[in-house]
Amino acid sequence: MAPRYRRILLKLSGEALQGPLQFGIDPPTLATVAAEVKEVHGLGCEVGVVIGGGNIHRGVAASARGMDRATADYMGMLATVHNSLALQDALEKLGVQTRVQSAIEMQALAEPYIRRRATRHLEKGRIVIFAGGTGNPFFTTDTAAALRALEIGAEVLLKATKVDGVYDRDPKRHPDAVRFARLTYHEVLARDLAVMDATAISLCMDNRLPIVVFDLTRAGNIQRVVSGEPVGTLVSEPKEP
User: Fold this and answer.
1) pLDDT tens string 162-213
2) CA dihedral defined by 189, 190, 194, 195, rounded to 10 degrees?
3) Which end of the chain, N or C, is more open, meaning fewer C-beta atoms within 10 Å of its C-beta?
């Protein structure tokens, strides 16, 4: 079956690579994530990826403990490079050509981020992993994901999480929490729902880029979303009357 989306941006948290560990990268979990991404790529979908660094370093948490916020955020950006290189290695072990582009130049490890080059890699069937966030402190990797998705012309932003969508309350603490099948950008902002940060949501809203929030831990979910199945929560413009 042909994929519903020709080009996607997949946003992974650093914790998606952590598995059962308290810190760092769990090799079996990394291999599983890489296999899921390969499946989607095998459908003929062009795939860009942004990975967080929370399994290694969180800038906001370090700042709260007294570290200078800009310094803490730069350290977090370096953590995303660490994770991006790990995912690149796992994908290439599966035979998938992959490029890492970093917003912070480090040419011994990754290409510098150049939008046209990234687009060309995608057109040639390579997966592109965008590391280093936006290259600026005070911006989250959610915002980096929205920005890169728009820059490469992605048709959807896929936000992979550990829950099966967006709820009105934390489902881990409230068993009666209600999951939304669909939300508008305005509803997410007005309700202060934990989808992505407000800057990322606003970027997507201004440019009408849909977001799908789904459970990464269920095998095959990325492929289901890309194939057009109603998985997780869709955040988009209001339906036409």
Assistant:
1) 889 999 988 888 989 999 999 999 999 999 998 899 999 999 999 999 999 9
2) -40
3) C
Element (H, E) at 199: helix 198-206
Q: Which residues pair with 235 in a beta bridge?
A: 183, 211
Domains parsed from the chain with CATH numbers? 7-236 (3.40.1160.10)
Neighbours of 104 (CB within 10 A): 18
Angle at 115 between CA 209 and CA 137, to 5 degrees: 75
Distance (Å, rounded) from C-alpha 84 to C-alpha 39? 18
Q: If phi over 0 gives left and psi between -120 and 50 gives alpha, with beta otherwise, what is residue 164?
A: alpha
pTM for the full predicted model: 0.94
Phi, psi values for residue 183, rounded to 5°: -140, 155
Q: Are 211 and 188 in contact (CB under 8 A)?
A: no
Q: In terms of Cα–Cα distance, which of 90, 2, 21, 20 is closest to 49?
A: 90
Task: Enter the tokens of residue 150.
Answer: 């728009």
Distance CA 94, CA 104 (A): 27
